């Protein structure tokens, strides 16, 4: 059996491993979650994350090979996240991948996590048509990028401070909803009425975003109105985030001719964002490309599929962790 990439993702708090074919079909995938570990601290505790990756990585690789009924000899290569992310977590992933590659005689590609999210939209089936406008909304990033079929990426907007995922997580914490905040806010918001007047920040920043003012506005409101129904605060916060994200996407599509809008990253798991993005695409006359929910949050499959792009370009060098990569980098 040929053409099988082992993808390994350890940039943050999930140990993701998968086996992926070049067409995006996923042969097997597993994610060892650390949510319970970090919930106690209300966010990711980096040193604990690294140690949990050490414990989880080899058993997760073994599980994926077993689930697929494969042995290491069946694999073509290994792709591993080399950045951006938490440095300790990246070191565990890249060192483990290099060790496995040496032991099994396989090439190892160091993959940009952001390109992994980008390629997540083509997992299971090819969806993206080019040129594409990509909205990447995760815990670490909020950005807009214009992408060509040859993999050339132009960053056209990004956040000047917090990412939208960070804002979700912090507001969830203020509301006592636990970690990670996104899913908890998404469950609460539809039960409330958006009756709190919150700012729509970054109106004047072109295609750039800013979410720290919104987060502070929620904090000030809660200090002044501690008994306001939390579901109404959550609903108002989600409305404000979505208004900003959708208006920036509308502007980006108007400025950069695109055949489709791709929405990826953990916050792309939000049903409300999916609905609003669909409405925008109908209005703008472009296709909407969304990865299935399970591929929106961090996973090994997106890294495996992105690794095929590195393989095609011969971009093989010993993966070195790099926390400063941008989406335009390989
Ligand atoms: O892409 P991701 O798994 O990790 C990073 O690369 O950062 O994104 C994690 C972020 C967290 O902030 C989490 O709260 C958010 O994605 N998230 C969601 C949902 N699921 C995860 N945000 C909104 N709605 C969701 N259903
Ligand atoms: Zn991510």
From TrEMBL:
It is an enzyme of class 2 (transferase). Substrate binds at residues 136-140, 169, 182, 186. It holds the Pfam family TsaD. Residues 26-304 form the Gcp-like domain. Binds 1 Fe(2+) ion per subunit. Belongs to the KAE1 / TsaD family. Required for the formation of a threonylcarbamoyl group on adenosine at position 37 (t(6)A37) in tRNAs that read codons beginning with adenine. Is involved in the transfer of the threonylcarbamoyl moiety of threonylcarbamoyl-AMP (TC-AMP) to the N6 group of A37, together with TsaE and TsaB. TsaD likely plays a direct catalytic role in this reaction. This is tRNA N6-adenosine threonylcarbamoyltransferase. It comes from Actinomycetospora aurantiaca. The gene is tsaD.
């Amino acid at each position: 059996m040929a053409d099988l990439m082992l993808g390994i993702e350890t940039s943050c708090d999930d140990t993701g491993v998968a086996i992926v074919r070049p067409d995006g079909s996923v042969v097997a995938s597993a994610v060892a979650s650390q949510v319970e570990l970090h919930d106690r601290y209300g966010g990711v505790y980096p040193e604990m994350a690294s140690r949990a990756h050490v414990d989880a990585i080899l058993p997760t690789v073994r599980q994926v090979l077993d689930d697929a009924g494969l042995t290491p000899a069946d694999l073509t290569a290994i792709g591993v996240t080399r950045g951006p992310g938490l440095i300790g977590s990246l070191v565990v992933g890249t060192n483990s991948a290099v060790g496995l590659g040496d032991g099994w005689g396989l090439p190892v590609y160091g993959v940009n996590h952001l390109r992994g999210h980008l390629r997540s939209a083509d997992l299971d089936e090819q969806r993206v048509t080019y040129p594409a406008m990509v909205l990447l909304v995760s815990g670490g990033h909020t950005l807009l990028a214009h992408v060509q079929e040859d993999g050339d990426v132009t960053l056209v907007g990004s956040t000047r401070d917090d990412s939208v995922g960070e804002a979700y997580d912090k507001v969830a914490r203020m509301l006592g909803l636990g970690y990670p905040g996104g899913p908890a806010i998404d469950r609460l918001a539809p039960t409330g009425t958006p009756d709190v007047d919150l700012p729509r920040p970054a109106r004047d920043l072109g295609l750039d975003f800013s979410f720290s003012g919104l987060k502070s506005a929620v904090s000030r409101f809660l200090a002044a109105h501690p008994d306001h129904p939390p579901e109404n605060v959550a609903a108002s916060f989600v409305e404000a985030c979505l208004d900003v994200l959708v208006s920036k996407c509308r502007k980006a599509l108007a400025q950069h001719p695109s055949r489709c809008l791709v929405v990826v990253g953990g916050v792309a798991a939000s049903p409300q964002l999916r609905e609003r993005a669909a409405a925008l695409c109908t209005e703008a006359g472009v296709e909407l490309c969304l990865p299935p929910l399970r591929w929106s949050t961090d996973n090994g499959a997106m890294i495996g599929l992105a690794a095929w792009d590195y393989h095609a370009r011969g971009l093989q060098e010993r993966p070195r962790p790099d926390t400063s990569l941008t989406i335009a980098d390989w």
